[in-house]
Amino acid sequence: MLRQTFLASLLATAPVFAQRCDSVIPILPPKNVTVPPTNGTAGHNGTTFLISARQFTPEPDYPPTPAPPTIPLYVHVVAGSNARKDGYLTEQEVIDQVNIIHDLFKPRGISFRHDASMRQWVVNASWAGPDRDFNEMKEALHKGDYRTINLYIRNITIRDYGGSCSNPWTQEEIWNVPFPRRLLQDGCVINTETLAGSGHSFMNMGKTAVHEIGHWFGLFHTYEAGTVRDGVNPPNPCWAGNPGDEVKDTPRCKNVSPAGQCNMTQNTCPEPAGEKPVYDAVWNYMSESSDACYQNFTVGQQERMYFIYDKYRAGETRG
Ligand SMILES: [Zn+2]
């Protein structure tokens, strides 16, 4: 019931989709915190805000953690018919997408295993279409354990919709879904229109999959502090005490709309006059910019991915 209510509210408030991703942020019991006074242009002064417990986690130093072992990657092509216009991809298109994932995670020491036995084509007219509740599809098709990535390349007939992904704890915290169902609902969904060479104006190089798999590893958006959670506006996302995306080397920033912009000198949390500007990380895979703008993850994001994988995926494997 809670899930239905939440989804209904999400759909009711959703704007026209000019967004890459609607991965859901965990909602924990809110608590009152008092934001300390700050100087300069960033921050509120001594005001009490209602924010979630998770949101107030300070940006941590992640303990040194080895890289994850090679990760099995299953790909499910979900089409409305066996025609390409309804999302029925060629095998080469799948291989090309997997290679992009492989190439772009490689600099961060993360590797994947995928072969011909790990991809399948499914024609299902109700799964392919505008519906954004992916759980029935995921539960029917999921393969492997909690250390296995399931990538669903689905024909989602919503303009400018890129995809979504579960992070390691989302289902349990929001909807109280325990194992094994939580395992079956794990995985990332991308729209067929995000593949390399598509005609989309900013999601056309296959990098939406990289963004979504970043969520699978527990990364948040770089502008996470600017997102409304628990139905309340969080403290100023530029406030230094705001944990943001819980990664130290990604500058705090606000979301920009519409998605797909690539302004390298964008600075939504400007420094006080006279200080050197620290521009928003629009080049980061976890921003909302364009595929052409996307260049990398940071070292801090790498450390978080290793740590979260080890703690939540390797450490909680029950599948
Ligand atoms: Zn996202």
TrEMBL record:
Entry GO MF terms: metal ion binding; metallopeptidase activity
InterPro entries: MetalloPept_cat_dom_sf, Peptidase_M43
Cleavable signal peptide: 1-18
GO biological process: proteolysis
Peptidase M43 pregnancy-associated plasma-A domain residues: 203-306
SUPFAM superfamilies reported for this sequence: Metalloproteases ('zincins'), catalytic domain
Pfam annotation, one family: Peptidase_M43
Record keywords: Disulfide bond, Hydrolase, Metal-binding, Metalloprotease, Protease, Signal, Zinc
Record-linked Gene3D superfamilies: Collagenase (Catalytic Domain)
Keyword Metal-binding: yes
Family statement drawn from the similarity comment of this UniProt entry: Belongs to the peptidase M43B family.
Role played: Secreted metalloproteinase that allows assimilation of proteinaceous substrates.
Name under which the protein is recorded: Peptidase M43 pregnancy-associated plasma-A domain-containing protein
Organism listed in the record: Immersiella caudata
Taxon lineage: Eukaryota, Fungi, Dikarya, Ascomycota, Pezizomycotina
